[in-house]
Amino acid sequence: MNPTPVAADKQGTMEDPNHPLNRLTPEQVEELGRELQAIHDEVFAELGATDAAYIRRLVKVHRRLAALSRIALMNSRFTPMLVAGTAGLSVAKILENMELGHNILHGQWDWMNDPKIHSSTWDWDNVTPSSAWKHSHNFVHHTYTNVLGKDRDVGYDTIRIDHRQRWKPAYLAQPAYNVLLAMFFEWGIAIYDLDFPAVKKGRKSKEQLHDEVRAIGRKAGRQVFKDYIAFPLLSGRGWKRTLAANLTANVARNVWTNAIIYCGHFPDQAYVFTKSEAEDESQGAWYLRQLIGAANIEGSDLFHLMSGNLSFQVEHHLFPDMPSSRYKEIAPRVKEICEAYELPYNTGPFLQQWWSVPRKILRLALPGGGPRPKPGPYVAPPVPAHASGGDALRAPFPSAV
User: Fold this and answer.
1) Which residues pair with 273 in a beta bridge?
2) pLDDT tens digit sequence for 230-288
3) Cα–Cα–Cα angle for 138, 139, 142, rounded to 5 degrees
């Protein structure tokens, strides 16, 4: 940890003694890291047949749902089949992108040594090539999470979501083009992964950019052919309705993915850091930054499944290589550590987390802006005297607004 104040940031972290980066001693930070690493190691030591059965079963469920939905849409001239096929395909695409594609490409299931469910072989239903996404997401984002000037996921180069980002007139339009980004999120991410600013600054060659554009072109071409040419043609006279259904399913998947990702990274609860705050950090300091730089979303088991368990974004950023199906299991232990070290555990209902994001995007579209209140240290809820069988109230988390 670097105790040197950040002169360029007048509201900087290092000037705030209550900021989580300052509240702990270096020894406490390292102990925090060891305790969190112990959770990781314990889970990986017991991974086995039950975990493998979960992901293999989910792959089968997804493929059957996708196939049945495609078959229904071959008869899309009949409205009930159109509705059922569109809904089923939307759910199948969400499952594939969130709980399957995102997590498999993180290497969460590589320990199985199954070539069919492995980060090196999985090709997801997305216009972004797997290799490009793994670099920009697995390496850049998860290494430099929420570090201004390092993590390009902070606003995706187009949206001002922190008051320390220098304002420019183009940000005035961000509430409008954020809606378009949500609808066509997979295309926005594909363009974002090309990293045009790096080419402009000379950090990336035009030859590399050309190769990446060709790779995206090939991948996007296959996706367009599949959803907007091949399957509509298989519907015969109902091809226009199938085309519309496929477009609807893709937009539904994009909007849902965008909402879950934004809720996990951009709410007021999540901390953003300067380069100096993340410089030369130890493993414990990296764990601490991941812990306070993400936010969870509360919901049912079905909600967690449809979010790819990214509703446990805190646990995901602590352990991106851990099977997502284990996040709910370890969440209580992470809360205990937060309480012991007087750290926040950022969480809230979906609507609360989601609403704080467009509000922030609208506020920071204008010049100025300032830091928003953060949650206080996590405090476990008291167990009512009449509770039995381990029942307890949900933890009362401080409002982020």
Assistant:
1) 147
2) 999 999 999 999 999 999 999 999 999 999 999 999 999 899 999 998 988 999 999 99
3) 70
- Phi and psi at 249, nearest 5°, equal -65, -40
Helical ranges in 134-205 per DSSP H: 142-143, 174-183, 185-193, 196-200
DSSP 95-129: HIIIIIIIHHHTTTTGGG--TTS-TTT---SSSS-
Domain ranges of the chain: 13-363
Characterize 336-364 residue by residue with b for buried, 16 or more Cβ atoms within 10 angstroms of its Cβ, and e for exposed. Answer: ebbeebebbbbbbebebbbebbeebbebb
The span from the CA of 10 to the CA of 15, in Å, is: 8
Model's pTM, two decimal places? 0.89
Q: What is the pLDDT of residue 5?
A: 31
Q: Nearest to residue 106, comparing CAs of 310, 333, 334?
A: 310
Task: Map tokens 């090709």 to a residue.
Answer: 123
Rg (CA), the chain: 22
What integer pLDDT is reported at residue 4 of this predicted model? 30
d(CA 258, CA 179): 10
Report the candidate in 288, 289, 287 with the shortest Cα–Cα distance to residue 273: 289
The average pLDDT across 33-53 equals 98
Contact criterion met (CB below 8 Å) for 26 and 35 = no
Using alpha carbons only, give the angle 387, 393, 397 rounded to the nearest 5 degrees: 160
**Inter-CA distances, 67 with 87, 240, 306, Å:** 13, 19, 19
- Please tell me what DSSP assigns to residue 203: S
